[in-house]
Amino acid sequence: MLGPTNRARPRQRRTTTGASPHRVGEHAIRWRDPFSSRSAVRTTIAFERAPEDHGPAQVVPTDIRVLWRRSSTRGAARRTLRVSFPRDADVYGLGEAAGPLRRNGRRLTLWNADHYAYDESTPSLYQSHPWVLGVRPDGSAFGILWDSTCRSRVWCGPGVLSVRASDADFAVYTLDAPSPRMVMEQLATLIGRPPLPPLWALGFHQSRYSYYPESEVRRIADEMRTRRIPCDALWLDIHYMRGNRSFTFDPDRFPDPAALIAHLHGRSLRTVVMIDPGLKVDPDYHAYASGVENGAFVRDHTGREYRGEVWPGACAFPDYASAAVRSWWGDLYQPLISLGIDGFWNDMNEPAIFDGPGRTMPESNIHLADPEIGGPTTHARIHNIYGTLMVRATREGVSRHRPDRRAFVLTRANFLGGHRYAATWTGDNSSTWEHLAWSITMALNLGLSGQAMSGPDIGGFEGNASGTLFARWMGIGAMLPFCRAHTDVWTREHEPWSWGPAVEATCRRAILRRYRLLPFWYTLFHEASTTGVPPVRPLWFLDPCDPSLRGANDAFMLGEALMVRCRVEESGECRSPMPRGTWRPLELVECHDPDLPELWLRAGSILPVGPSLQHTGERPLDRLWLHVA
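Structure (tokenized):
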């Protein structure tokens, strides 16, 4: 009998080749994969419109090189993208990931996933942004965008971006400009600019998983107004629904939703409700029944309706890759709009599925996608854009049924370019000091990836915040684009008054600061909607040539005028260096509060400030105070 033998592994053949650059638009270069057998390179939904090819590029950056590596093992072909750039460049972007601002040395996977209480080691979160912004030592900048919606494994090594995507046929776009701001403006010409949000969405929002029954919602509203804590919106999580069915109200907990919403409007509070994609398999449930009638649901690989377990139990999932399904989905919002509901929160749309492989859909599921998305395909290619297609359907439906008002939609899952349809938040974070610090860097990198409006669950979603942590978090969260307190069903109360008068006073001051800055916030969002430059920016945006600012994690800029310096450790101070130039301290409330971040006004700036308000509609912003440095 022969013993075991060592068989030599088949040799792996590698071929590396460059790519041919074609200019698309005024500033972007598209690099075609030379191994591709396709004559045309498809465009994903990341782009606002298909980039127009102007022929071979005559001038390309001399320090950026795009290479594809093709390897073959046991007859299976694999491709890896490698983009080389200066080794001393700093890189940012890649959307949503916990950890420091700078992405140098990071390994991430772009595969939308529901990760409760994530940390810095979590390889992927709720969103995928195949985009990197690089800054050279001289302050000039470049951008790299790879046009694939499939799972990508990314490494930002010294002087190289390495991408291994399950999609073997995609293009790469590079941008180059004298400054990071100009690269962000160039990116916006490709993927679109964010819509201007309604003014009320820039106020403070109070939420919980969940406020119920109806009497509890009224109590929270009354507390906000009695305690004079500025607030513009209360949010209803899934407990408002009948058996967790989207587009319904529980008849016992919320017997008269129209009266409740009218009561909140009478207190100048907007209402935002959650809508999940999974629709309970129940022939008596109107949303599911109409979905069956319209052939609206994703199919498994055998062609049968796919079902997975989520909060309501066994659910079917709309196939948002179809325009007809998106239209059907948008019409489901009409009764809620008629009730007066102001905004909509699309959650669990990675999609998160409790009994699915990796807690999501099988990659073999079938989507009847429209030609603009590439035609019928498997979930492997739709997965990362499933949430984006959902919020596109939501926004288009809400705008269709309420055309006279700006829509407000919040999403958990998204993809590069999805900022055109929804704001976002940083998902199910934890009540820890580390997560407080990551609130800043995550919002900044989302902004550098095109997502202008984002913010954390203030106070943390998982776990019980201490009073000190909550107060500090409110001070920082009030200076980020989307400002909402939210917490899990199992936690203690997380309202501004829950820790006593001292914490309540700090929260009130923090939120009043935000409302006094509303003229400035609105101006910054208008700038974002016209240029693509985010309202909240890293310190190095001020001086890209200053290497000391490249790793600043606990300070940031609102526009070009106002610097926010934060204390993200319980007993520590702000560690970020002061940028060069002259800075004036600024206070907007009646007294100094050490738990609030420091505000500094840049010399040469004029900052418009409004009156103290309890909500955005309290009185018109026709009187401004100008702080001149």
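The longest strand covers residues 65-73. The chain has a mean pLDDT of 93.
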